[in-house]
Amino acid sequence: MKTCDLLLTNGLVFDGTGLARRRVNVAVRSGLICAVGDTSGFSARQTIDLKGLAVAPGFIDVHTHDDRLLLADPSMSPKVSQGATTVITGNCGISLAPLGSSPAVPPLNLVADGPLQRFESFASYFAALEGQPAAVNMGALLGHTTLRVKTMQALDRPANDAEISSMQELVREALEAGVLGVSTGIYYAPAQAATADEIRAVFEPLRGTQALIASHLRNEGDQVLEAMTEAMGIADDLGVRQVLSHHKVLGRANFGRSRETLALLDVARASGDVCLDCYPYTAASTVLRKDAVEQASRTLIAWSKTFPEASGHYIDDLMAERGVDLDTMIASLQPAGAIYFSMDEGDVERILAYPETMVGSDGLPHDTFPHPRLWGAFPRVLGYYTRERNLFSLETAVHKMTGLPAARFGLRGRGLIEVGCAADLVIFDPDTIADGATFADPMRPATGIHQVYVNGVLTWADGAHTGARAGQVIRRQSASGHSGDKS
Ligand code: ZN
Ligand code: CU
């Protein structure tokens, strides 16, 4: 008789590959899946009859800004409550490491705040996370904006040769420590002056590695195609895989243009390795910017350092109340963050349904009144877009959250229900799963998530956190010791 720790019987298994659901048993031993299918030869310490509920690999949130949350609130409740068991940090150019004591200029203030939890290197950041594990696994990206702020005297120009070589040194160090790749955010002020040549030079150490580049485009509005061409050219030159971050088209004038962006991707994919992530909402969220307010039909304040009570209020209401114009209002709120209603539902659905699109929440965990994507992105795809809108099958939806991101980010042994894979598992009810978070009530947990296991440890059960902190740091598989990664 073989033994296992946990036996899940009578579940509907969505294995993450996108293949049809199967009614088979799943057995777990020492944090790993040890059997899928016939488990009649097993004796289990604990057996749970799932009575037809769905079992899937834990969801992988490929687009997060959870760098500091993992340490500040290791429960990671916004993610675990949705069934997410792995987060990818450091997106949009802004990674917490290796910022060190450099100033958290916006948008770095979305992840770094005050003198606490600062790291000069990824090695020290990973060591801190392993010393105080969080409830979910994490893999990290190194941000280009972080490198600029750390190494450059002035940010309003391209980097010079000396600055580029300092940045390359930090890239090599991060790759050696095990980051999965890098990210850029040249839409944002501290990196706007960076040219494609600068980015290519800074990330030259990626050449020949399996590390990827995640790109927040320079422009997601009128110049979205030009911005895609610029970003894809950089990845193509370096010969690395690319993720176009939170793909979208912004502004009423551009509604419907995802037809053009996806057609451009089809062409690029014929020769290059490029994929997407997307969050399932028609509103964006980032720091407060006048151009973003002007592009949106409405703007909701997510946080403000100088006027905290503004959180959760629409900016046009605040302006009317105070009798001030937009410039004055923005100045009185800064530093601040906002939620911008600036997308078309048709575009969101078209992008989500694209075969190479993964789900990423892009949640901003330190906001006072956050975009509901922080707590709701994954259940919203499974409930609203899969069950109600029928955008794709449940098998496809799960694949976009599990097997696909694990393959694209090189997370070996994750994202699938297969013998030998980590027992990151979510048990949910496909008939009731739904996002609870809304724009009016953004921190309400999802419904329909029954249990969440991280590395075989029960972490969320029937609407409550168990207190478990079984998350691991996921390093790039080829990191350290492989000469191909050092040049
Ligand atoms: Zn971004
Ligand atoms: Cu982001």
Task: Give structural notes.
The protein is an alpha/beta fold. It folds into three domains: 2-57 and 417-465, Urease, subunit C, domain 1 (Roll); 59-288 and 341-408, TIM Barrel, CATH 3.20.20; 289-340, D-aminoacylase. Domain 3 (Dna Ligase, domain 1), CATH 3.30.1490. It is built from 16 helices and 20 strands. The protein has helices at residues 69-72, 77-80, 122-131, 144-151, 161-177, 189-192, 196-202, 224-238, 258-269, 290-295, 315-322, 326-333, 345-353, 373-388, 394-401, 403-408; strands at residues 2-13, 22-29, 32-37, 42-49, 54-57, 59-61, 84-89, 137-143, 181-185, 212-216, 242-244, 274-278, 283-287, 298-304, 336-341, 357-359, 425-428, 449-454, 457-461, 464-465. Strands 1, 2, 3, 4, 5, 17, 18, 19 and 20 form a nine-stranded mixed β-sheet that branches. The protein has an eight-stranded parallel β-sheet with strand order 6-7-8-9-10-11-12-16. A three-stranded antiparallel β-sheet has the order 13-15-14. Strand 1 (2-13) and strand 2 form a beta hairpin. Helix 7 (196-202) packs parallel to helix 8, helix 8 packs parallel to helix 9 (258-269) and helix 14 (373-388) packs antiparallel against helix 15 (394-401). The N and C termini lie far apart (51 Å). The protein binds zinc ion (ZN) and copper (II) ion (CU). Residues 63, 65, 91-92, 246, 362 line the site of copper (II) ion.
